[in-house]
Amino acid sequence: MGYDIHITRAAEWSDSMESPISLEEWTAHVEGDPEMRMDNVAEATSPSGDVLRYENPGLAVWLGYSGRSKGHTPWFDLRDGRIVVKGPDEEILQKMRAIARALGGRVQGDDGELY
Q: For the chain, which terminal residue's Cβ has fewer other Cβ atoms within 10 angstroms, N or C?
């Protein structure tokens, strides 16, 4: 699994549908940020050679992340009214905070802690 960090407008990320970030808002934000791209699909190859594929119209990638040169892709996944990133480092958290400010939200971990 992994630990998720959420950009949400709700007091608790699990209540994000009470004041959701819409796909239209998220798409407009991504289109206005030259460091981001809406991909809508992610693929990875498992050690056994199986291709794992995830599709979502709200799936974006941060192209400006320094770790991309080492093969790490920071996916920002809009689902259930919030944007979810799995296991972000401090650089990704900074980007998440900037996005949260732009969208009128905040950054919150699975256990409710704020970043």
A: N
